[in-house]
Amino acid sequence: MKPFRANMLVCAGTGCVSNKSFKVKLALEQEIKRRGLEDEVLVAATGCQGFCERGPLVIHWPDGIFYQRVSEEEIPMLVTEHLIKGRPYKNLMYAPGAAEAPIPKLADIDFFKYQRLIVLRNRGIIDPELIDDYISNDGYMALHKALTDMTPEGVIDEITMSGLRGRGGAGFLTGFKWGICSKARDQEKFIVCNADEGDPGAFMDRSVLEADPHAVIEGMALGAYAIGAQTGYVYVRDEYPLACQRITRAIRQAEEYGLLGDRIFDTDFSFNIKVVRGAGAFVCGEETALMASIEGRMGKPRQRPPFPAQKGLWGHPTNINNVETWANVPLIIMRGADWYASIGTEKSKGTKIFSLVGKVNNTGLVEVPMGISLRKLVFDIGGGIIGGKELKAVQTGGPSGGMIPKELIDLPVDYEKLAEAGSIMGSGGLIVMDETDCMVDIAKYFLAFTTDESCGKCTPCRVGTKAMWNILDDITRGRGKKGDIELLKEVAVNVKNLSLCGLGQTAPNPVLTMIRYFKDELEAHIKERKCPTNKCTKIAPAPCQKACPIGMDVPTYVALIAERKLDEALEVIRWDNPLPAICGRVCPHGCEYECKRGTIDTPISICSLKRFVVDYQRARGADIIPRKEAHGREKVAIIGSGPAGLTVAHDLALWGYAVTIFEALPEAGGMLRAGIPGYRLPRDILDIEIDVIKKLGVEIKTNSSVGANAIPLDDLKKQFSAVFLSVGAHKGLKLGIPGEDNFEGILDCITFLRGVNIDKNMNKPGGKVAVIGGGNAAMDAARTAVRLGCEEVNVIYRRSHAEMPADPSEIESAIEEGIKINYLVQPTKVIGDKGMVTGIECVRTELGEPDLSGRRRPVPVKGSEFMVNCDVVIPAISQAPDLGFLAKGHGFKTTRWSTFEVNPETTSIQGVFAGGDAVSGPATVIEAIAAGQRAAVSIHNYLRKGEDHRDYRIPRSYKKMPQVSLSNEEQSSLRRPEMPHIPVAERKGTFGEVALGFTLEAAVNEAKRCLRCDLE
Amino acid sequence: MVSVKIDGHELECREGTSVLEAARSLGIRVPTLCYHEALTPYGACRLCVVEIISGGRRRLAASCVYPVEEGLEVITDSPETHQARKATMEFLLARSPDSAYLRERAKEEFGITEPRFVLAPEDCSDCILCGLCVRACAEIVGVAAIDFVMRGIKSQVEPPFLKGSDVCIGCGTCVQVCPTGYIQVEHISRIAAAHEFPKIGTESISDHAVKCRVCGAYHLGSAFPKDYNRLLANV
């Protein structure tokens, strides 16, 4: 062979080829020729390199430089830089993140670093179309060794001792299987290579056939020698044209070299291989169906026993193994069973190829030792989850496998461990799912595949898979019923136990693991018509309704506004929401983010329309006090008068209970009053809404603390039939930095806001204020400080604008009012002089790896320290419930965030319920209302003990409203109105409401824009 | 000969005998649907499942296609087998809710009146896909005019390419062997023709009537005795 100074190896696996790698190869060859380098540099095609997501790939040897996403346009620069000037070309190198430095060498890239290549030993090194390449890498040495030095029994013993197990999925011991077939007495025996790989997201077998077809041929020849077979079949699906082409070509080359055919290596052993193309039925991967297909019959499975080793192709003993199993064989014979058995776990030896796909950064094909943890696969090799999101589950074994939740991420991957977790190894598909994936929807997806691929022969698989799919479909469309989960499980178990072949026996796995690990999510779909990830778009009448935590019937009230039927609109609003005028002002309106109109121009102003209806009706004296349903039932005590407590009071009072609220502060409203400033939520609005609830007969006792030093909780438990704890989260968390406790001028955000909003004793705290944090509470503190006359207000936030949790309109208003927001800055120390704060020492940060919350972690930049001068520091990083009110030995189970544990709504003490921020940690008003509504149902069911059962609220339509007809002119001219605000100059020194609300005309026109998704 | 144990009874049987045949030889009743003594067992309906204890493992398997093996232990009647057969019958009934034959068996043998899950109307049919007609046509009549087409829930029995078969001889064996009466013949003028299925040419039907290997009679649609179906079932 002619020596070259450099090899440029172009990946020619299916992934890269479909990314035009052959064009890249041609361009590279032409450019090299044009530069006169054709005698120095060899351009060759190789099999799949595995890192398919980054294709087309080109690798430079001997430097080992890895080039990715190579395009024809970049070729001249690549040749100039690397091949002529001798410096690797940075532009085409791989970098793990946009901000990170490129990694030149293949061996240094995480994706490759942790892999161990046995089956794929030749990938990317040899040209799969040249048998000489294979031979020059010790190819066919094992066959020679076996035929000249080993008996067939010796080969079987070696394979048995190696511990190799079938890679098709079931994991049967290969040597043992060969032994059975070798003992069968028959003149004619067959060997089959199963390359009918067909599960979504899996391409291991294709890649092996494409990258190293001779390894499969050699393995099959060894197997044929061991069991005494004369003929072999490669059953490969026709959808793999390149694999078909390469294996066919490889067989021809092997025949030409005398490595297949009669008297191989001048021994008595003769062996031939034929390629059979499958028409693409998934069930043909099942061995009895596969044999039927080879025989020219319909690909349907039959009962085993008799096993193929007893009665296989045309009734003769037949041994079937998967592509990957065959490719393992030559190396075991070459290097010995002991070597192979030293890799992997006790019962699962060697390596396994996985196709790592789904929501993972590095998609591709990887070969790893058995026993590697899923964490290493997903995070080290896979480079973590796309977009820094949180991992939710990993599906192994494709549609026949199960979902392994993130809690089991440290599970070592071997046959037994996966089976214990309810999944299977399968052929090696590994699909990563993130927090945005709905597990019910995913289970339905996999089931749709198996339902479609079921051959229809046996009853359980044919009918059962469809029956399960139908139940899941109903659930995702909001038609789930009580008892569905039990029925689903029963059907799944029956299909698993009663089906004829592996397809039916494994098809229920995704459903069963979904029920096992994600039952809460499934129950939310059924009980509350909620898809926690919002993936199931048909679960509620309209997307806005689906997005709303309390499922408000938005389309109906918006339609009523469009028709100027405001009395009715208010009826609909009050039917769903006990605090509509408040929500119409401070709700973060997730509904608007889901609004379909937003995909055309701008979403409907749902939040402001709700506010308009309540304000307008109230102004003309037409507000509604909801009617009570029943009277004279038990007494219920509620501790805390925030949105959760008010909601429980509202609902229970409507259902006839006698409700008393105990409020520690002098005025009712909880965080609505203490935390949210008047310029966002005017006090009179708050008072009116609370009055409505009082009018239902709810008694609110203010200045009434419950707990250790006040009214004992035990007394309440005696006096009342049920107690609801909604104490909120009023304790500001500390920054945890030096100097925090040493100086005056440090004012926790909640104390500050409460001082202004309730105690009315808080004046201008200082001239220069630094607010630490990026949530709505931080914005409230900063904007309040401006109104109190502080000259300079700095907000310090350690991440960037994109991660900032505060409402975008809040951030905008803060900036309007002259507040400076410092992004990517982290405070490190509070500085003071003579007992007073003088400033805060900060460091600049940059965003690194995602943390547990899925947001990218801020990493301090060394040497970037600087000072922010201030005389007041207001930490507003987060809040927790203040559990100081509980007596010692209170018996409540709490979390490490000092919130109450509830299951699902009661606390660990009978008759005591909890909800709102005290359970969830700091959350939104609408989430507190949702928690309150859920708790009210729970309390009702607890007190009525099953009789008079009341279901959870589910998103539903109050009434059916027809579409509003619009003139052409209206259709084209209507735009989302701007909310009028009071001028910035008038905001200082006053807490008057900034947003002024819509006029009737603006509201009606806005309502007309609604697309009425509920009518579909 | 191999010795097996069925419901506690020791039994010697010929190699190749199915567990179902062995059980029936002892007078044990195992419900079946897609099984017919005159035809190759198919193992599709799963109504005949029994518990197989072999190599220390205990599992459910269709008895009609499970060959006896030395030392095999079989339990034909247990809570597990009953539950499995009931589940199978519920699946069958979900597919063929209008079949009087199935409704009767579901009610009498398992106490099922309605399945707890429903399939879309297009997924339902009185054809229970037992394949008796397919096998009878291929193995007894010897023409294989019909077979399964499509896959999964969309499976049906049809002539190739859903077109009228040119090999069907109109013998009507499929009609007679069909347990649910899904396959019907219709009288068109003087001669009998399987109108619904199989679709056949109009000429030469009477010329091609064949002798049935089961009953020895010559089959021609309208010539069957009314209780033929029952006779066939008791062969």
Tell me the number of helical segments of chain A per DSSP (H or I, 4 or more residues long). 39
**Biggest beta-sheet profile of chain A:** 5 strands, mixed
> Largest interface, with Cβ-Cβ < 8 Å?
A-B, 33 and 35 residues
- Cα-atom radius of gyration of chain A: 35 Å
Spans where pLDDT lies below 50 across 5 or more residues of chain A: none
**String of helices and strands of chain B:** EEHEEEHHHEEHEEH
Please give the number of β-strands of chain A. 28
What's the helical proportion of residues of chain B? Answer: 10-25%
Strand order of the largest sheet of chain B: 2-1-5-3-4
Structural class of chain A: alpha/beta
- Helix fraction of chain A by DSSP (H/I, runs of at least 4): 25-40%
Strand tally of chain B is 9
Which range does the strand content of chain B fall in?
15-25%
The geometry of chain B reads as globular
Estimate the mean pLDDT confidence of chain A.
91
Chain oligomer state: heterodimer
Class computed from helices, strands and strand pairing of chain B: alpha+beta
Rg of chain B computed from alpha carbons, rounded to a whole number of angstroms: 19 Å
Low-confidence stretches of chain B: 187-235
Spatial arrangement of strands, main beta sheet of chain A: 10-9-13-11-12
Q: What would the average pLDDT of chain B be, to the nearest integer?
A: 80
